[in-house]
Amino acid sequence: MPLPSVLNGALQCTKLCKRTGIRCKNPCAYGSKVACKTHGSHKSRNVLRGTDHPRFSHGERTKEVETEHRRASITLLTLRDIGDYLNMFNGGHNSGRKPNGYRKYDMSDPEELALAILATVQDRQVK
Ligand SMILES: [Zn+2]
Where are the domains of the chain? Predict the structure, then answer.
């Protein structure tokens, strides 16, 4: 017996039952257009992604955008650290949680200072 959601217009699984040969009557699961949970809907090729995903609204919070934003934040924080070491700023610091991947360099060590400068320059070359 099909589940109520199929009767209400949900997509039906397109796979055939191995034993009886008739079409599966379960609804599609996990946002899949093809299969139910029994017939492999959770395969990555069947899962809706990007603009097809039902939760997609504007694309400003995708993984790529978040990664780019995190990288830019790390560059800005590193530049701020270099400026603080050179006494360029006389004010407060940014508060809040630092982005993942941020590394606080020890600017008194010349190698660390060079690494910090290289980190900001390499970040620009990536883009
Ligand atoms: Zn099925």
Answer: 1-56, 63-126
